[in-house]
Amino acid sequence: MVFDTTAIIKKALTECTGTADIQLTDGGEHADLASTVAFGLAKQRKQAPVKIAQDIVATLKNNKDLADQGIAVEAKGPYINFVFGSAYVSAAVKAATQPGYGSFPKKDTRITLEHTSANPNGPLHVGHIRNSIIGDTLARAFRKAGYRLEVQYYVNDMGRQIAIVVWGFDHLEHTRHEGEKEDAYIARVYIEANREIENDPGITQQVDKLMQLVESGDPGTVKKFRTVVSRCLDGFAVTMKNLNVKHDRFVWESDFVRNGDTKRIIGKIEKLPQARHEENLLALDLAEFGFANKYVIRRSDGTSVYAARDLAFHTWKSVNFDRAIDVLGADHKLIGAQLQCTLKLLGEKAPEIVNFEFVSLPEGSMSTRAGKFVSADDLIAEVTKQAFEEVTTRRPELDEDTRRSIAESVALAGIRYDIVKISPEKSTVFDWKEALDFERQSGPYIQYAHARACSILEKAGTFAECYDLETGQEITLAKEIAKFPGVIEKVVAELRPHLLATYAHELADTFNSFYHYEPVLKSEGKVRDRRLTLVLAVQNTLKESLETLGIDAIRTM
RNA sequence: GGGCGAGUGGCUUAGUCCGGAUAGAGCGUUAGCCUCCUAAGCUAAUGGUCGGGGGUUCAAAUCCCCCCUCGCCCGCCA
After folding, report:
1. Which nucleotide's C1' atom has the smallest distance to the CA of A522?
2. Which of A82, A225, A494, A534 has the highest count of CB atoms within 10 angstroms of its CB?
3. Nearest-CA neighbor of A140 among A246, A250, A1?
4. What domains appear along chain A, each with residue ranges and CATH number?
């Protein structure tokens, strides 16, 4: 592992200024790291910042730690700039050529990460897969950071939506179209059933009855719910596989009713001072924590609501894991906060929640019920078709199977990258033009840089690894490579996977520049060796980055 | 009405938590680069009152206050 330059510099600055809290900023083109302590000390020392910076630099020039690591110090006006030397660069490149670069030692912390958890009443659409891709990328980053992780899908198998689907199967004419996916078929029944309910509100009572039956464990009704949900999940599995998204466990909501956990948690909640009863109705008054509305736990007909089952689920997580992380859409912010608050009142660990904002269509919000959505399957199919055309244009000499395979990887890269590169707190409007664009700020662009590196290495044959870099382009690239482990750490610490997307793009960019300026295969001797070593380091770092993003690091395209 | 999130060139966006050097990118437009390692590429040019107004600070896209616009939420739905 590369030594921690930040810590060394902070320590040196603390020693010579007496200031404990040292902030380092990115030096941009001036330096690798920079300090602005001189500004803050100006008033205190009654001296000009420029003078202070000069004095500090004079002291730091004699610092042994900095000298040992080859970190150069220089004052530029009031700024104190640090430039990493060849020892740092060599060590970074050497580390980056190793398999698994950027991985951290195994940790004992057991984490559960829940993502997607869409209601099984229709196919996953482009909004749901934002959840899947953020979640899956985070999961990959956590594993790379050494954590023991279990990824879960919480199956909402007893909600009103499912009851409506079950009602539809019982009362409506329906046949599955030839070759139709199960989840798409379920959506048709769901949409049709909702239309019927609009025309005849009396149906609502029949749906309520179904919900009571399933809660009480009526075998026939339970079986119907299970069947419908399972069929829909079979459809989801295909979509998830195509998106390279993996879940380790599917947790069924109804299990928490059947095993008695929900009843037990309701019993505990009843004893909380915030509990409010009105006959059978049980709700929590969380006004003291800033929640204006009452948090209903049990209906007046005695059945539990989603919140109660969710509390039981999260209590189970609290018992079995050290940390729980939930990836939830913006519409779940309030109930997520209420859940956290209630779990704390119960003395359980509250989950950490990663929120993301909505994806809408140009014509407005998506709605499964109204049939207004772009399904993930359609997106994958369209993008793959486009990718196949691109591959065929660029590489007509390849056989069809190879082109097909490359197209699938490119499509996956396009979709996953497009979604993960955007900060989760930004709401977006789905745009076909952007989804089908494979240029520059895209997943395929990064794959291309990787394939290019692979191609060079393949043509090079064997070479002696050499870590003594010289030119500015070489050193810039090496320093970019060196950032990778830090990026993984930051993604995990801040739960922000888009940082990795940004990094991978910057690395690909830096490599492309290098590629056009510094000939590798045509250089000779030591120069050729060190550039090939650098290409190997880039290739490996890009590969690790892509795989952590859930994108295939294909060797040719 | 209340709560949360967002507002950065024509379009999409990074940076905002933790204030510092000329606000980074991509698309678009314009002009170059394949007898040379994959042109899904590279080099330039173009384009920015960082929603608006106050304030704090040596220094504000970033912190504080007010306002505007958009999205989401505020159910005995999930």
Report:
1. B37
2. A534
3. A246
4. 5-84 (3.30.1360.70), 115-253+311-360 (3.40.50.620), 385-548 (1.10.730.10)
